[in-house]
Every structure is written in C-alpha cells, then in structure tokens.
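Reopening this one. Same input as before:
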Amino acid sequence: MAKKSDPAFAIGVDYGTNSVRALIVDIADGREVAAHVFDYPSGEAGILLDPKDPHTARQNPADYIEGFYKSVSHAVKAAASDPTFRPERVVGIGVDTTGSTPIPVDRSGQPLALSPEFGKELAAHAWLWKDHTGHAEAAEITEKAKKVRDKYLDKCGGTYSSEWYWSKLLHCKRSAPKVFKAAYSWVELADFVPAYITGNLNPDTLPRGICAAGHKAMFHEAWGGLPSTKFLSSLDPALAAIRDHYAPHAMTSDQKAGSLTAEVAARVGLPAGIAVAVGAFDAHMGAVGAGIKAGTLVKIIGTSTCDMMVAPMDSGLPDIPGLCGIVPGSVVPGMYGLEAGQSAVGDIFNWFVKTLAPAQYGSEGDAHVGLTRDAAKLRPGASGLVALDWNNGNRTILVDPLLSGLLVGQTLHTTAAEIYRTLVEATAFGALTIINRFEEYGVKVKEVVNCGGIAEKNPMVMQIYADVCNRPMKISRSAQTCALGAAIFGAVASGAYKSVEAAQKKMTGVKETVYKPAKSAASVYAELYRVYRTLHDAFGTASGKPQLHGVMKDLIAIRDTARRGAG
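Same output, byte for byte:
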C-alpha cells in the first residue's frame, strides 16, 4: 500500500472514434508519465460500415474490452521506467468515451454482438455517435416531443438528433426487430466500460452517468428522469421496457462507479480495489482536462468538434435553441454543462485529402502537409470561394443530419489548395456561429481554449480560427486533454481531491503559444462570414429546409436504388 507521502497517480482511459488511449498522470501536477494507444482492429479504422447506407457507423464491443486491457497494461509497463511510479500508487481510474454510442445488451449486461447468434448482425454492435441511420426517427421524436406537457427538448436545444440514444433505439426496433427484441437493455459505452471493469454489468443497477443520460437520452430531474412511459410508448411501446431497465438516478463523474475487480486488475498489472469514476463523454472530460471554467469555451477539435462551456447553477441560464444540451453536473459537478459542436471537421479535411487531392501531393500523409503548406500561402478571400461545413450534417445550431456540404465560387482556375483552405474556413465559420449563439443567450465567451490533434499540429487552422472568430486561440497544455480529464475524475472519485476545481488547479494549464487575430484578415473574414450566413440561412433554416430536404431525399432515394442495382 502506498504511503501518504508517496507520489500518487491516476489513469485516464479515452475511447475515441478509431482507438482507445490510456494515460497515466501524476495527480500532484498533471505530469504525464506514460501512455499507450490501441487501434480498434475491426472494420475500417475501427468502424463497421454498410456499403448500402453511408449513414451507418457501428463498432465491435469486443474492441472496447480488448482496448482497455491492451492500452492500460501497456501504459503500466511503460510507466515502470519512471522512478516514482509503482502500480500500488494508482489511486483512481476515469473513463471517457464517444457518445451517444449505445450498446444492445442481454440480461447479464453482455453485448449481444459477443454472442454467436448476433456476431454478424451490424445492429447488434455498438451504434457509434456518427451513425445517422435514425434521422427519420429523430424527426419523429422531435415532432411528438413538441406536443407534450413536459418540455423534453428544452434542455437539448429544441431538436432531437439522429446521433442520440432514443432515435438509434427506435431505428433498431424498426430496421432490425430481432436484435431489438433480444436486447434486455441498451447501455452507453461511457457507462459500459466502468461497469465492466468494476464487475457490475447488471443493466438494472449499473451506474448511469448524467453526461450521457442528460445530453442524449432526455434525462432530467424536472420530469423525474427519463421521458415518461406514456411518451416513449407513443413512439413504440417496446421503448417503455428499456426505460424500466435504466437506473432511476444519474450520477456525476466525481462519484465512484465501483472498484477495479481482481480479475481485471490482474490482466492490466494493477492492484484490485482502485476507485473507478462514473463515465462521461470525451468532450466533457476533455473540457475539464483543458481547464474549463465559467466564461471559457473549450473546443475539442478532432474528426468532429465539440464545444463545451459551463455556467453557475444560479445564473438564470435560459434554454438555448440548437444546443446539444444544458445539463446540471455533466461537465463540472455543481455547474450547468453546455454542449454544442460540429458533426464534421477533421473528417472534412480527411475526406478531401483522401478522395480528391491531386496526385502531385503524393500519399495521404504527404497530401495533408502539402495542401496545408500551399493553403497557408493564400490570402483570406483571394480564392473567391466559400463553403458550408455540413458534409456530415449539422449538429449545432440547426441540428439536421440531412444537410450537406456546399462549395460556391468555383471556376476553371480553382486549385486544390484553395478548396482545402476554404473547407478549413467553413469549419471556422461554423465555430463562430456557435460562439454567437452562446452569446445571443447571455453566455459570455471570455476565452477560447482548443485541444485535440488539429489544434496541436496545424498552426494554419488555428490562425484561421483566430482570424475568423476575431479572438485569441489558446491551446491546452496537454495534448491528451480527454484522457487527462478522465484521470482528474479518477483522482477526485478516489478522494485524493475534494473537487474537480481543486484538481484542475494543480493538473491543467495552457501552452505559451497563443494565436492572435490579424486585423486585416479578420476584416476580410467578417465580410466572408456574411456570405456564409446568407447560405447558412437560405439552406439551413426553416425557409430553405423544405426545398433542400426535398432535394436530399430525392438524391438519397436515387443513390440507394442505384446501389441496390435496381433500374
């Protein structure tokens, strides 16, 4: 057993879209001792796809289990080179994951996909956050929720998303009824991992985190937890049974989900009994790892972007249309957690490089470097292009998965570097739209802290964001903020710190490099943003949606018919 004077450590386990990372940190100052990344082996970069439906994105639950064992055990072995580290000095473990990523499970809590009967059924696997197959169900939930007394949508922006819990479950019921019938319950990945490693997989009793419940499943104490049995039955009577197998209370992540079991501990080289925190989503714990506080907007920039803020519980905060949720305690316990974001950012850049970059730029990795180099040489506005950043739909403020990307201003002289820069600018315009929505409803953005691989590695992107938003862009000190945030919650759940805020003061910070807006560039981008908003409002708001939706539905129908080989 560790002495009180010995250094103490926490482990953050970060489940991303393509891999899982385990990070070991010294809780005294956030020093990162060791880390290991495990790439999911199943599917394409860890994602199970359906060639007939590009909205499909599933994952193999077995990858999550193997990922925990491999990432944590290798990180523990790597930490052995640090003279202060001992496995018995690990006091807590925190887990963050993508979401909403619900998993259909049996009565014992085992994922259906792990059984021989359902191993090859896509619907029996985890429904990754970026799965948009439930877009029709999301629209139906939105319309029905608007007509009931309890305002279920007021706390999640007024529109239910296809990325969220109930739309995915309802789509499974309609598209894969055999799988749905076999599922005793559905468990968010953020809840499944802590339950697995603490030995409490019983769907009726396993701890459900307020982060996943509040932001994605319409859970709120104002109406007694999940939406009522009557409302869920109006969608489908089978959904009411899922409600019955969901804990009546949701927990914040500073609380213990349980203790590491002896079996799991032995496989990762740790002692049994280590405190395991209640799980939450990667962006929410990442915001904590980036030092979030009132007035700080944390942008977690990756394949998509999540924008996180917190506000005091006594701030009189109004409901904000288009947000992904206003949930007490989902980020920092005792404060409102506010979530917004963009459905694709890095994914847009990767799509262009992977599929459209000219051969002269070489391999995919070289193309990113070359296009960034050439795009950085261009002056703002010089290309005559503007784009909408909706290649994977819009998460905030329009909450519409059927919206699509748009590039305006092309000529026979348009270059690949101009398009690449324009796509970056489009994501920056989307970021500014979110900032403006926060401030329109009284949530002042005093500073912006960015984190994630793009923020770390691409100065051009950060400078464009600074110029477009006309605000300094700070970078989190840690390159692994989500895992760091998870480790912070592990430390707090263990009792090593009395509060998240106390742990943040010791364990977080920002880099010295700050990207400051250039006055001339900001002026040009202000003009371009007006053009962006004209397109945004024409195609994305109520007046533009009927026509655009008609076009998109026709295109999807034609595409699906062609892919099936029909005439």
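So the earlier flakiness isn't reproducible anymore. For the record, The CA atoms of residues 153 and 352 lie 35 Å apart.
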